[in-house]
UniProtKB/TrEMBL annotation:
Highest classification ranks of the organism: Eukaryota, Viridiplantae, Streptophyta, Embryophyta, Tracheophyta
GO cellular component: membrane
Record's keyword terms, sorted: Heme, Iron, Membrane, Metal-binding, Monooxygenase, Oxidoreductase
Cofactor(s) for this UniProt protein: heme
MF-aspect GO terms: heme binding; iron ion binding; monooxygenase activity; oxidoreductase activity, acting on paired donors, with incorporation or reduction of molecular oxygen
Name of the featured protein: Cytochrome P450 family protein
Entry's family note: Belongs to the cytochrome P450 family.
Amino acid sequence: MFYGGKGLGLAPYGSYWRNMKKLCTLHLLSGSKVEMFASMRSEELGMLIKSVDKAAVLGEVVNLSEIVGEVIANITYKMVLGCNKDSDLDLKGVIRECMNLAGSFNLADFLPWLSIFDIQVCINI
């Protein structure tokens, strides 16, 4: 799941980590890349404000956490995948599943000889 510790977050500090940081800083998080998506972000926020305004006029209750989460998901889909949210790919569900797997209890971590059975105990807290 974490490519053997080769990602930026889990790689040990060294030349590889510095090169990954440089790559992310120059190509993914540069000012020009962030500025390139400014119009898309303002468009999504404009739609958010319109939907909240419409709900306020109708006197409806609004769950801001859900709406803001959807806006963030829409922006992420457009920035990362270059398309709108697709019903076939549930990115939020995939991230949630990865977080559950990363945080779940693995019996083989404490009893290494059990790793031959590949026992994974998932505990959702």
